[in-house]
Amino acid sequence: MSTPVKKGICYLVGAGPGDPGLLTLKGKECIEAADVLVYDYLCNPELLRHGKPGAERVYVGKKANAHTLTQDQINDLIVKLTREGKTVTRLKGGDPVLFGRGAEEAAELAAAGVRFEIVPGITSAIAAPAYAGIPVTHRDHASQLTIFTGHEDPTKAETSLDYAKLAAADGTKVFLMGVERMEEITGEFLKHGASPATPMALVRWGTHGRQRTLVATLGTMAARVKETGFKAPAVAVLGDVVTEREKLNWFENRPLFGKRIVVTRTRQQAGALSRKLRELGADVIELPTIRIEEPRNRMAFGELVQDCHTYDWIVFTSPNGVDAFFAMFDKLYNDARSIGGARIACIGPGTAEKVRARHLAVDLMPEKDFVAEGLVKAFKDHQNMEHVTVLWVKAEETREVIANELTALGAIVDEAVAYRTVQERDDNLEALARLKEEGADMITFTSASTVDSFMDLGVPLPEGVKIASIGPVTSSAARRRGLKVDMEAKTHSIPGLVEAVEKYWAGK
């Protein structure tokens, strides 16, 4: 091996089988450190959100007979980028070296004399069956596991698989990438003495919300694949362990399983809503329609934050406002007590949670109506506002209810424009393509700005799609843009929206 040339490094990372929660901690660290993210077809694009701002993204996805780049071109690319001194994270679905050609990429990096690390990932060979309620080993059924590929090197003159040995092997057999050759593979097993009654299952898009499982037998599976139009990518499981699915099918029995739901929040905020929906079984498409940017007049904002201790009240009407305020506060002060005696009011629980994370108490919050009108009412019920000084931390474009109503009550209100929302046009291309190709059952909106930005994208609404709104202001924006609101959360918060979504589909 030649001597390493520069300080660049390439991480060959197993991105897991699809569920974002199955990415390893080491894998996440590699994504966060990357200057360049090189990812393939089976890598969940939502993992890219862990990347640092400005990280370059390169899609090198390969499907059967449809390659963005050839394997040789991918090898050349990661070597070139690493030689330039960059930190490259090569994300490969599942595990990088289990039929993932990661060993070939590692060999190219080694031959080029550049640093690399192999970061194992959770393989779909085990995870997909587990999510379908099929343990690949089981005391009652199998103490041996055989894994093989159904997609060998097409340049080889003949198969290197010994089907006679595979058919005679005890325990469970799992094969990957074999849907297109199902008739040939099952035929070889039958020809070499395997019982046609052997239980068999195919798990498509295992661990994703769009997971589908087809159960048959070795003798009938090829015909069932044709009948149902079952497509790749899928993991095949052969053996008595398949019979455990009837008892252990946990993933596909959740209340939102089979529902494809679009989340339109910013990439940074989408995680909480997406996670809760996924926990209920939904197939989530994160399609950020807006992103948060600094205010145009950052100096004016900074001056108001600097004087925050002089106000009677500081009012926060969004989690983004809390983040922006304290990012500026921390630059100006090194002591939390510098906020002085100002009391804090929040529009709702999500915003309050952000404040409490700073170990600060929330002195006022509406009991149920988590909108501007609800916060104004809470102030009215709380105290006389005559000559009370209020610093309202807000977005650049928002309704003036807080300022107008509190001023009418006699308060002195200063508006601190903490951030602005702009339309997202770069960080949603994969999600847009998926929405256009696969459609959706429901689109969720958490603010008027997400409604307007989504509609401005000009994406045709999928047939029959339902619209879910977090509250009346968002619903009003949706109706103004010609949308029919099918469901509005009674509690105007992320948990409230999730609860309403679950109840809506439970009633269908």
Helix fraction, binned, reads 25-40%
CATH topology assignment of the largest domain? Methyltransferase, Cobalt-precorrin-4 Transmethylase, Domain 2
Poorly predicted spans: none
- Global Rg: 27 Å
Overall pLDDT metric: 92
CATH superfamily of the largest domain: Tetrapyrrole methylase, C-terminal domain
Give the neighbour order of strands across the main sheet.
3-2-6-1-7
Query: Which architecture of the largest domain per CATH?
Result: 2-Layer Sandwich
CATH class of the largest domain: Alpha Beta
Task: Explain what the structure shows.
With about 500 residues, the chain is an alpha/beta fold. The chain has four domains: about 10-120, Tetrapyrrole methylase, N-terminal domain (Cobalt-precorrin-4 Transmethylase, domain 1, 3-Layer(aba) Sandwich); about 125-255, Methyltransferase, Cobalt-precorrin-4 Transmethylase, Domain 2; about 260-290 and about 425-505, 3-Layer(aba) Sandwich (Rossmann fold), CATH 3.40.50; about 295-420, 3-Layer(aba) Sandwich (Rossmann fold). The chain contains 18 helices and 22 strands. The chain has helices spanning about 25-35, 70-85, 100-110, 125-130, 165-170, 180-190, 220-230, 245-250, 265-280, 300-305, 320-330, 350-355, 370-380, 400-410, 430-440, 450-455, 470-480, 495-505; strands at about 10-15, 35-40, 55-60, 60-65, 65, 85-90, 115-120, 145-150, 170-175, 200-205, 210-215, 235-240, 260-265, 285, 290-295, 315, 345, 390-395, 410-425, 440-445, 465-470, 485-490. The strands form five sheets. Strands 3-2-6-1-7 form a five-stranded parallel β-sheet, with helices on both faces. It has a five-stranded mixed β-sheet with strand order 8-9-12-10-11, sandwiched between helices. Strands 14-13-20-21-22 form a five-stranded parallel β-sheet, with helices on both faces. Helix 10 (about 300-305) crosses helix 11 (about 320-330), helix 11 (about 320-330) packs parallel to helix 12 (about 350-355) and helix 13 (about 370-380) packs parallel to helix 14 (about 400-410). The longest helix is centred in the middle third of the chain and has 14 residues, at about 320-330. The chain is elongated, with a radius of gyration of 27 Å. The N and C termini lie far apart (about 65 Å). The model has no long low-confidence stretch (mean pLDDT about 90).
